[in-house]
Amino acid sequence: MKKQLLILLILLMSTALIGIIAVQLYWIKNAISVKEAQFDRSVNEAMVSLADKLETNQATKFITSKISTIFTDSIGNIFINKGTKSVSISACDNDSSFSWTTCINDSDTTKNKNKKTIKKKITNGVMKETKTISTILDSEDDEGNIVLSSRNGADSITVMINSKIENITKKADKLQNVIQKLVIEYDTSNNDISARIVPEKFDLILKSELENREINIPFEYCVFNFRDTEMCVKKSANFDENLQIEAYSTNLFPDDIIEKDVLLKLYFPSKNSHVIRSLSIMLIASIFFTLIILLTFAITIIVILRQKKISEIKTDFINNMTHEFKTPIATISVAVDSIDNEKTLHNPPQIKYFTDLIRKENVRMNSQVERVLQMSLIDKNDFNLKMQTVDIHKVISRAIENINLQIEKRNGKITTSFEAENFILESDEVHLTNIIVNLLDNANKYSENEPEIEVITKNSNNGISIIIEDKGIGMSKENMSKIFDKFFRVTTGNIHNVKGFGLGLSYVKAIVLAMKGKINAKSELAKGSSFEIWLPLNKIN
């Protein structure tokens, strides 16, 4: 795959991924906003319902307090005079069980012509009592005035309403409600706020209203009385006045006509977590699938880059293999042509020289083929180690003899320091020799000047360590992380200043691991490299 096409593909996939994540984030934000709006609406509905119940209870308490004095004439009655239309507020007992209803009276007398009684039922849901208020409308006077009056001990209230007879019927119900509110509000205006709000019932009703709307989280509240001063007259144990800005607020007695001075402030410390928790399933699912998309994207990019790298390695391997085979083939071709020369045919020593040259190049090509086949078997884990008792010092000495001729041609030297006292171990002698030869060959190839190589052995951790050090060109940290990768070479491509397929170190690591050993490398540019192999001394099954 071309580099430009790969970059374009990554850009397109990245753009699509960013778009998907942006849409998910927008959706999550929008879902949270909707949930918060639903939560706010539910809280406001609960507070309105609370205020309604408090007003109902207040009206019920007012009626109950007056009922006990009806029969002793403690409530003010409207005096019915000739030519006067009056309205009185009263309560009637329909039966002995005190189930209160409205008395309806119609009379057509000279004194009270067209007298009507309009009733209004009041039900107390908490006390399970039903009360009614009746309004008596009498005949109109000459001026069309209606006198509404109520008296309770020393306190009294009088309202004069100017109306035409034809409007009374239409406005009677509205007028009745206003009168009821005025009377109740006037009656309770001098009472302490605690008389209007019973603490036990208040907490119970507020909690019940919230739970009815599936709000089951802790809350804090405070009831403020603005009649005299902004004072919190009732609050929950942990109410924090610094958090009032986050609180919901409502008037507890919105139907008050004269003054609206009782305010409830309510807030939820764990509101945000409650909203998030209510969306937890969708949020987790969204995050989960987004992560899957991210992971798929990352894996796709990694696979594409790996395939690109493999393609480059394949091309590099073919180039290196071609070069490694081209040289001996060319040498053999020249040798054959020389043997065919008539002068050479009659010169047996020269013929022997060329045949030896052909044999060596053939062995060289065969060894390269064997190495490639060997790595293929190692990759498939299809090889067997022929374990036997081995003297590691003798193995190292033989490996040095094999490579020493190449070292001497470059005026180099190999020194040994056999410090290990226990040097007999169970190992595959052939593979172990190949490991040492490979490391010595690398130390020679990657030394720019005369090679200086040192081989050290020592015992450590119930095993033996073999250290091969050189003073060559060294390696960068980037190359250090790749040196054991198959086909990797510090110098790659068609530049063959260092020969090989890049299989040596990968082969070394594979065999060391098969022998239950370890291999570590240290290197620094321009200062050389050090490879340490550790092998166990105990027998390997």
What is the spatial order of strands in the main beta sheet? 14-16-17-19-18
Total of helices: 12
Straight-line N-to-C gap: 46 Å
Rg over C-alpha atoms, rounded to the nearest angstrom: 52 Å
Poorly predicted segments: 68-165, 492-496
Shape summary: elongated
Name the beta content range: 15-25%
Number of domains: 3
Average pLDDT figure: 74
Helix content: 40-55%
Sheet with the most strands, sense and barrel status: 5 strands, mixed
Helices and strands, with pairings:
Elements: H1 3-70, E1 85-87, E2 89-90, E3 92-93, E4 100-101, E5 116-124, E6 129-137, E7 145-152, E8 155-162, H2 165-188, H3 193-196, H4 199-212, E9 220-225, E10 231-235, E11 248-251, E12 262-267, H5 271-278, H6 280-340, H7 342-345, H8 348-379, E13 388-391, H9 392-409, E14 413-418, E15 424-427, H10 429-445, E16 452-460, E17 463-470, H11 477-480, H12 504-514, E18 518-524, E19 528-536
Parallel strand pairs: 1-7, 14-16
Antiparallel strand pairs: 2-6, 3-4, 5-6, 7-8, 9-10, 9-12, 11-12, 13-15, 16-17, 17-19, 18-19
Helix pairs in contact: 1-4, 1-5, 1-6, 6-8, 9-10, 10-12
Question: Quick summary of this structure?
Answer:
This protein has 541 residues and is an alpha+beta fold. It has three domains: 1-278, no CATH class; 304-382, Helix Hairpins (Orthogonal Bundle); 384-541, Histidine kinase-like ATPase, C-terminal domain (Heat Shock Protein 90), CATH 3.30.565. It has twelve helices and 19 strands.
Task: Please tell me about this protein's structure.
- By secondary structure, the chain is α+β, with helices and mostly antiparallel strands.
- Helices cover 49% and strands 21% of the residues.
- It folds into three domains: 1-278, no CATH class; 304-382, Helix Hairpins (Orthogonal Bundle), CATH 1.10.287; 384-541, Heat Shock Protein 90, CATH 3.30.565.10.
- It contains twelve helices and 19 strands.
- Helix 1 (3-70) runs antiparallel to helix 4 (199-212) and helix 10 runs antiparallel to helix 12 (504-514).
- The longest helix has 68 residues, at 3-70.
- The chain is elongated.
